[in-house]
Design goal:
Layout: H1 3-14, H2 24-40, H3 45-60, H4 70-85, E1 100-106, H5 112-125, E2 130-135, H6 142-153, E3 156-158, H7 166-179, E4 184-189, H8 197-210, E5 214-220, H9 225-238, E6 242-246, H10 255-264, E7 268-272, E8 280-282, H11 285-292, H12 298-308, H13 311-322, H14 328-340, H15 344-349, H16 354-357, H17 369-376, H18 380-384, H19 391-401, H20 405-427, H21 431-438
Parallel strand pairs: 1-4, 1-5, 2-3, 2-4, 5-6, 6-7
Antiparallel strand pairs: 7-8
Helix pairs in contact: 1-2, 2-3, 3-4, 4-11, 5-6, 7-8, 9-10, 17-19, 19-20, 20-21
Length: 443
């Protein structure tokens, strides 16, 4: 999402390259470029000016240490100011009560229903007993969509398709939740194409009747500054607890994520990207600032890995690698685990330095499909014993997977090279010693 902004900010810091000290002249030039980059990213003009004024004030009051360049110092100051602008620290939802009630609000098309399913799945994985309540009584198929999502994640959905009173449906859902001992009820509400009195009145009545633990405003980050304006209109009426930014994987400039906290004075609690039910993350302002400035987000990457990788499976694979028995079945299993973690380009962007390198590179999740097709076209024996894959077998696999013999050959070669690397690491003692020996910088 922030590719263009990251590039523009990096370019702004380049103006200080080679400068031995921070002066009012060179800081003014850099700050002007930072402000322009923020405005082009659709950050509110007033917010962009306030932030860059703060950056300038901070920079002019700092002495540059001999070990730190002016560019590095200004990057650090900008990082701190962006973190503060987006809230300073991460804030989770409050799940109190029996049951806890989470009211989901927002415009039509913002992704409320999908987010409701993602949040239910997220809380369920934390060991909480969750129920979804279908209170969007206007949009065609909204109730059916929520039921499909509920079935997909194994969460019960309460709905009354013939009832036109959203408040009564929600109240009945809460009663049913108490009977079934559900600890959290997520209420998916109706939206409109624009802010109107009827929608505002209904969501206000829902909030008054339910007295929810949390009211979350879901906003489509692709709408840019309009998202901030809509959030302000909802907050004036609802006084919601937090914001959810959806569609962060889309072609968006990111201005909403940066300026919404300053405008409505409410924290961004979650971000959502893609259609997969696992594609939801708590919002961490410091990590997002790091990503915007091209520093990566290793902590989030590790957390995603911990959430999606099975420990028993990891131990089994580790044992097979040590015995040099890693096969195509194991390789396929690892691909499936990686895909669960989310969009591949986003994941790679969490690695420090990779965001800039990937700016103009199209990394498509579908790039895994030919590899999966090739492996699935192999027999059980071929997956377990790749060494038997002769010319005839490779041609059959290519025909069966809709790929070319060259693609099959390339995959088998890459797999062989990977196994050799694993074998080398084992001979060197594995773990840190093996990795150190393979790293040219450690010699």
């Amino acid at each position: 999402m922030f590719d263009n902004l990251s590039y523009k900010l990096d370019k702004a810091f380049q103006t200080l390259k080679g400068q031995g000290s921070i002066t009012e002249v060179n800081v003014a030039t850099t700050v002007k470029e930072i402000r322009r980059a923020l405005i082009e990213a659709d950050v509110n003009y007033k917010v962009a000016k306030e932030v860059t004024d703060e950056i300038k004030e901070q920079a002019l009051g700092k002495d540059v240490l001999t070990a730190v360049s002016p560019g590095q110092l200004l990057t650090k100051i900008t990082n701190d100011e962006l973190t503060n602008l987006m809230g300073g620290k991460s804030e989770d939802i409050d799940i109190q009560g029996n049951p806890a009630i989470i009211l989901i609000a927002g415009l039509q098309g913002s992704g409320k229903t999908t987010f409701s399913g993602k949040l239910a799945n997220y809380l369920k994985k934390q060991g909480r007993s969750v129920m979804l309540s279908a209170c969007d009584i206007y949009r065609p198929a909204a109730i059916d969509q929520l039921k499909v999502l509920g079935e997909q994640i194994g969460v019960e959905v309460y709905a009354e398709p013939d009832n036109n009173d959203a408040v009564k449906i929600a109240e009945s859902a809460i009663k049913q939740a108490k009977v079934l001992n559900k600890k959290v009820v997520i209420v998916d509400t109706a939206g409109r194409l624009a802010v109107d009195e009827q929608m505002m009145d209904e969501i206000a009545r829902l909030k008054k009747a339910l007295n929810p633990t949390e009211t979350l405003f879901v906003v489509d980050s692709m709408t840019g500054q309009d998202a901030v304006n809509t959030a302000k209109a909802f907050n004036d009426r609802l006084d919601f607890n937090g914001v959810v930014l959806t569609k962060l994987d889309g072609d968006t400039r990111g201005g909403a994520a940066i300026s919404i906290r300053r405008v409505v004075d409410k924290p961004i609690k979650y971000v959502s990207h893609g259609e997969k039910m696992e594609a939801i993350d708590r919002f961490h302002p410091d990590r997002m600032a790091n990503r915007i400035l091209g520093m990566g987000d290793v902590v989030s990457l590790v957390e995603k890995a911990q959430q999606n990788f099975d420990e028993d499976e990891a131990r089994r694979l580790s044992k097979k690698i040590r015995k040099n028995q890693f096969d195509f079945n194991d390789f396929l299993s690892q691909l499936e685990q990686i895909k669960k973690m989310g969009n591949i380009k986003d994941l790679m962007g969490m690695i420090p330095g990779m965001g800039k390198a990937l700016k103009d590179v199209n990394v498509d999740d579908d790039s895994f499909k030919p590899i999966e097709a090739i492996i699935r076209s192999m027999t059980i024996e071929e997956r377990e014993r790749p060494e038997i894959l002769n010319g005839g077998r490779r041609k059959r696999i290519a025909n069966g997977s809709g790929t070319s013999v060259q693609q099959v050959n390339n995959l088998i070669k890459q797999f062989g090279d990977m196994k050799k690397l694993m074998k080398t690491m084992n001979k060197m003692g594995g773990g840190k010693r093996g990795l150190a020996a393979l790293n040219p910088l450690s010699r």
